[in-house]
Amino acid sequence: MPETFTEIKRTADATWNEWVNNGSPRIFVQTNADSMASGAIEVKEAIQDTLDKQKISADVTVVGSQGMAFAEVVVDIIKPDKPRITYGNVTPENVPGLIVDYIVKDDPRPDLALGTQGEGEIDGIPLLKDHPFWKLQYPIVTRNFGHIEPGNLNHYIAQGGYSMLNRALEMEREDVRKEIESSVLRGRGGALFPAATKWNFMMNAPHPKYLAVNGEEGDAGAFTDKAIAENDPHTLLEGILISAYTMGIDKSFVHIRAEYLVAVERLRRAVHELEEANLVGENILGTDFSTEIEIEATGHAYICGEETALMDSVEGKRGTPRPRPPFPAAYGIFGRPTNINNVKTLSYVPAIFEHGGEWFKSIGVEAATGTMFLSLSGDVKHSGFAEVPLGVSLREVVEDMCGGTKSGTSFKGIQTGGPLGGGADWDSLKDLPLEFDPLNGLGAPVGSGGMMMLGQGTCIVDLTHNLMQFNAAESCGKCFPCRKGTGHIVRTINRVMTGLGKMEDLDEIVYMGDTMRDGSLCGLGQLAPRITTAMLRHFRSEWESHLVDKTCPAGVCGNLDGQEITFS
Amino acid sequence: MTEEDVTRKRVREILTEFKDHQGALLIALLHIQYELGYTPEFAVEDASAILGFSQPEVWGVLSFYSDFKIGKQGDHFIDICVDGPCHIGGAPGVRRALEEAALDESNKFEVRAISCPGICAKAPVVAVNMRYHGDMTPDKALELAAKLD
Ligand SMILES: Cc1cc2nc3c(=O)[nH]c(=O)nc-3n(C[C@H](O)[C@H](O)[C@H](O)COP(=O)(O)O)c2cc1C
Ligand code: FES
Description:
By secondary structure, chain A is an alpha/beta fold. Chain A has helices at residues 5-20, 33-36, 40-54, 95-104, 132-135, 153-158, 163-169, 173-181, 195-203, 224-231, 233-247, 261-276, 307-314, 343-355, 357-363, 394-401, 426-429, 436-441, 460-474, 480-497, 503-519, 523-527, 530-538, 540-549; strands at 26-30, 59-63, 75-78, 84-87, 113-117, 210-215, 251-257, 292-298, 338-342, 371-378, 384-389, 411-416, 422-425, 450-455. Chain A has 4 domains: 20-129, Glutaredoxin (3-Layer(aba) Sandwich), CATH 3.40.30.10; 162-355, Rossmann fold (3-Layer(aba) Sandwich); 367-455, Ubiquitin-like (UB roll) (Roll), CATH 3.10.20.600; 460-549, NADH-ubiquinone oxidoreductase 51kDa subunit, iron-sulphur binding domain (de novo design (two linked rop proteins), Up-down Bundle). Chain A is globular and about 75 Å long. By secondary structure, chain B is an alpha+beta fold. Chain B has 2 domains: 3-64; 76-146, 3-Layer(aba) Sandwich (Glutaredoxin). The structure holds flavin mononucleotide and FE2/S2 (inorganic) cluster.
């Protein structure tokens, strides 16, 4: 007899309470691939070392990252009956002082603190939620980040996890779908298709049918799918299971890049714990619903995020797009009906199901409901990831939340939506809301939420060259307009950068782009010229400086004397 | 056994291990790449023989996914991300510094360009023997390189 959900929940709550109330200080090390790149592992070792040397008994736990990459390594200390204090820029060198000062001598070290979290206050330390980086944020998919051990099933269930799966399993499939549909959740992979409407195509499709979970995230400057997989894999998995139940999916393939080592490991652990608890597999929780989840660690190729190419990649081949129709809902993975959703899209499902579609709609604006999970990179003081309601003003996002540029120069603009996205100058952007349509109209689509901030030290021509080179390298080569067009545009921009260009080159770039848009087989070739078109539209004078005055205003292209340089 | 024999034995083991997997070719090759840090050229012949694909099919997969780095020229690998955020964050300078140092220190390490591993908030990013380090500068990168033996 399998355990009922009530029994599973009871065990989880007991385990959680025991951990929370064990009477000793608890230390969290916010650990993901990003913080590891700043030495999170070394910090954790230094903490353990200090505790051993000082004979302090405390519990050290790896939790997920809260996205404050700018302050990493981030460590939290919770002393019994005290609020949690979050410390930034922790290093192996300052760890011993911090531990001894706060845990032994009761000096909370306000100089290292970013803020406190949860109830209660500590003199001299502000509340973290008042930090400019947090004021705008509205955590939905990120709600557990930094609060639980990633992939730990008991921790997740103790936060209310999987109770929505349990509830869904008792409902009619169509009712579950309708609840999600009422939220107007639009796909976060970039194409913005309403998720539950797409599910409609699958409801009556014949078995076996599959769900492909798109975590390829090949676009440089986007890292939120990785963030979910690393910091709270169970939110994604619960979203997958509820969606799988709704559509009657037999097997889900979570497509994630093998090089996301931490993400893959934590997802695998999470799936394993689900299997042990009979929350995935045969007759889940004693119902007649059976479904499988496989974590597919696959190769890195931007085009494999395109839905038809992704299916080849799941089959272990080169990922080349197929013409549509047939659509994946009719002919997908191994020729079977397949639904494709992005990692973020599915991760919203449990919360929407819990609080209702109306609640989700009330967070964003009518044309863009809910939150957007942003990847913040480039010349920005507060780099990292952040979840904000759609509809907030970009000025607040950039000037307040992001804290301006890192270099201290003024903002030049934002490159949005990855190399297939676009961008615009700050003057055109600053009075707009973070919303799909207005930004699209400007040629700066939100896409999957990647935002590369540009300061005055960035040369637009050089950046466009880099992004277009990326698109050229990622072209699968199957169709002519994309294969030839991307390379041709790269060479043309190269001429501009080296002082060999003519004004007509700019028209040529636009003309080539139009041909690619109209003639390419898949989204990559159709969208690749968007970046050049947008950058020409908004930063024309910078291109002209290169061509006419032979100067690079940002001082990046040093070589405008007509010597062609080669790029590798 | 020479070093190459040991590696080759391991490569064949991995290929055999994944033989019956769905999508075996890609999965096995990725495994080899991430375990060894590179993909030896003989893996093409071996994958073809063990998994039953033609050699061009194996090359097709290897050349398609940017994970694969064929062959090995140094004792260590220093990978540098060259995509957008890292590029504007100063990756070209870091790369030049490392490449010059690699020339001076013939074969101690090999500098390879990689595509975005999603640590853009810490741009520019390098990976020394597949361990990532963020917020790179030419000086910090040279320091990391100097620690290699
Ligand atoms: C070249 C190209 C790359 C894409 N890359 C991704 C990707 O990395 N992740 C993703 O979720 N969608 C990507 N997409 C969009 C997918 O084709 C598809 O629309 C999406 O996964 C559907 O999920 P959603 O409806 O939940 O957004 C890409 C599309 C194109 C044309
Ligand atoms: S662009 Fe270098 S890590 Fe993303």
